[in-house]
Amino acid sequence: MDAIKAIGLTQKFGDNTAVKNLTINIKEGEVFGLVGPDGAGKTTVMRLLAGLIAPTAGDAWVYGCHTVEDSGQLSNHISYMPQRFGLYMDLTVQENIDFYADLYNVPRQIRKEKTAELLAFSNMIPFRDRLARNLSGGMKQKLALACALIHTPKVLLLDEPTNGVDPLSRRDFWRILYKLLEEKVTIFVSTAYLDEAERCGRIGLLHRGELILFGTPDEVKTHMSGVLIEIRCAEPRQILADLRTKLTLVSAGLFGAKIHLVLSGEPNQILEMVKNTLKEMGVQAEAEIVGPSLEDVFISMIRPIEGSDASV
Amino acid sequence: MNMYRVIAIIRKEFIHILRDPRSLGMAIAMPILLIFLFGSSLSLDVDHVPLVVWDQNGTHESREFIGRFTASRYFDLNGHVTSYAEIEEAIDKREAILALVIPREFSRKLESGRKADVQLIADGSDANTATIAIGYAQMVADGYTSSLLLKAADQQGAKRVKIPVEVQPRVWFNQNMLAKNYIIPGLIAVIMMVISALLTSLTIAREWENGTMEQLITTPLTPSELIVGKLTPYFAIGMLDVVLAVLMGQYLFEVPLRGNTALVFGMAALFLPGALTMGMLISIMTRSQLLASQLAMVLTFLPSFLLSGFMYSIANMPIVIQGLTYLVPSRFFIVILKNIYLKGAGFAIILTEAGILLLFAVVLIVVANIKLKKRLV
Predict the structure, then answer these.
(1) B248 in the same domain as B147
(2) SS3 readout for A193-213
(3) How far is A96 from chain B, CA to nearest CA, in Å?
């Protein structure tokens, strides 16, 4: 069974189309990562799947429940964690968890075990009686996750859960998510972090409301349009600017001290051409063909559509 | 409706209230303060009208006539003057609302059996008080006239003369016609309307502003569970406020409560759910705490004061406005409270009004339920 199924899902806000004709299947027990630049429509997709808004056109089913017609049933199977911290700041960690446990009618005994387990796993036991307002950003997110997991949902919808969270808490966070996979929980997570996207079973790239790539991270990387060449050199910023004037580039960017160029054509010929150009410029540099990262792929996909300034 | 979820909301709301002592303090202090302020300043009684006298006659008769005024509790003699300029000055300085001018020929005319005119000058800048004060003066003058007539008849040796018709007024329910006795019960109704709506006007809007609503919508929580769960704690605070208000009426303003005290609280329990839901409905519609609290203030304060029959008699309003008053729940609560307080009325008398309050509550709760959709937009 598909845990999440959407057919032709479309959401318009006035003249603005936030989500365009989204068709997607997510298998049960899968981690799916929805990636895209800010304003791509990620949050709208999450809200559509959580039944928070009714789509302008198309249908979606989550765990077999239609998001509009069976929204009552739907709420028993899903947990949705909105991007904005959705907990009560004047309640303690324990009170927040208890509140959501009550809303989902989690039996007392299970609740106790589950709370202990969640708090232990997220390293939050010492903070049980602390007001949510006094938690750090990372801990707030872990608490929100604990609240979302107290009733053992079948499908977990997470909207940029690790936005602005420190790396250590992020690792805790993903540890909890992986553990959920053992329990066959389906996770639909939106993120702007591509290292997190690499952790997902499958990913989709959303751009201007359209899903322009879909597959496992490795599959997605084969969609690289063109050849990626990495150049190591001194003063990469200046050299990149010069290269832009000399070569016809699909896209280009700086990755730390390295330059990534994407060109279309036969790989070896392209490499020769780049090396020759560098030589003509009198630059000491090493150039080689590399396998693209997700970031390279996404930039190469988005740039041609958008022009020059897109960032992922 | 799932009771566990309702209790979860009730518990959560109580925690919110208790951990925000400032708001809780406001919820309790505000009605006390309002009832105290309005109760002590809103007096519609007119007595101790300041009076100056220009006695041009200066005889035994004129002094006796003036004595009739000073003996009455309605007038305070603020001194004698000797010119119109002084009268004008006294009225300008608000030392007098009424001025009595007794002409030089007052006693002579009386003795010769002719009509003796006296002049009464009133400060019309407060027309209401002036009208009432003139009425009092008329009453005093009439009393003096009839006593003169009787005396004259006696002296002429006539048989005991009787005044043909004499009105013997007897005021029921409020013998001394003390305004506070009907102001305080009405005030409790008005203040409770305003406070109730203010209390709940923030609740739903706060969930929207803090982003917690978005998460609540995706849980199995239903709108009716949320509404009932949120109403309950504020109902408790509202009842506490009513208890305080009744105690203030009893011990601070010494307003007699002739009816059953339990009936007062029972009716308050019938009134509060509607009033509280009104605030919540405003909160649901606006989704903004600031806007909701301002709207709640305006939408309850003005109608409760002006259209409930508290300040102005409904019977004297234009017919369209009279129709509007039926939409003001405090109108009915005021009738109920005045009936219990002043007339000692039992439940049977106020059945209609009680039914209307119940109807208000039911309609508002149903509307709030419909408006609180489980959708973001």
Answers:
(1) no
(2) CHHHHHCCCEEEEEECCEEEE
(3) 9
Is B375 an 8 Å CB contact of chain A?
yes
Hey, is the C-beta of A158 within 8 angstroms of any chain B C-beta? no
Distance (Å, whole) CA B120 – CA B82: 15
Q: Which residues of B touch A76 (CB under 8 A)?
A: 220
Instruction: Domain of residue A240: give its range.
Output: 227-291
| Distance to chain B for A78, nearest Cα, Å | 8
The HSE-up count of residue B40 (CA atoms within 13 Å, CB side) is 7
What is the pLDDT at residue A291? 84
Across A174-180, average pLDDT: 90
Same domain, B115 and B25: no
Residue B169 located in a structural domain: no
User: Chain A closest CA to B74's CA: distance in Å?
Assistant: 58
Residue-by-residue DSSP string for chain A: -EEEEEEEEEEEETTEEEEEEEEEEEETT-EEEEE--TTSSHHHHHHHHTTSS--SEEEEEETTEETTTTHHHHHHHEEEE-SS--S-TTSBHHHHHHHHHHHTT--HHHHHHHHHHHHHHTT-GGGTTSBGGGS-HHHHHHHHHHHHHTT--SEEEEESTTTT--HHHHHHHHHHHHHHHHTT-EEEEEES-HHHHHTSSEEEEEETTEEEEEE-HHHHHTT--SEEEEEEESSHHHHHHHHHHHS--SEEEEETTEEEEEE-S-HHHHHHHHHHHHHHTT--EEEEE-PPPHHHHHHHHHHHHH-S----
Minimum Cα–Cα distance from B210: chain A residue: A86
Mutation for B interface: A12, A99, A105, A150, most B CBs within 10 A: A99
Contact B220 A51 (CB under 8 A): no
What is the pTM assigned to this prediction?
Answer: 0.81
Which of B120, B155, B190 is a domain's end point? B155
* Closest CB from A72, A76, A90 relative to B19: A90
CB contact under 8 A, B218 and A91: no
Query: How close, in Å, is residue B293 to chain A by CA atoms?
Result: 21
pLDDT above 80: residue A2: yes
In chain B, residues 216-235 whose CB comes closer than 8 Å to chain A: 216-221
A217 interface with B at CB cutoff 8 Å: no
Do residue A79 and residue A125 come from a single domain?
A: yes
* Domain extent at residue B287: 3-43+178-371
pLDDT (0 to 100) of residue A72 = 86
Handedness of CA B154, B158, B160, B163 (dihedral sign): negative
Question: How far is Cα of residue B123 from the mean position of the Cα atoms in its chain?
Answer: 25
What residues in A contact B226, CB-CB < 8 Å? none
Q: Does A87 touch chain B (CB under 8 A)?
A: yes
Q: Hey, is B377 helix, strand or coil?
A: coil
User: Would you state the structure tokens that stand for residue A98, as one six-digit string?
Assistant: 């208890």
What's the pLDDT tens digit per position in A125-148?
Answer: 999 999 999 998 889 999 999 999
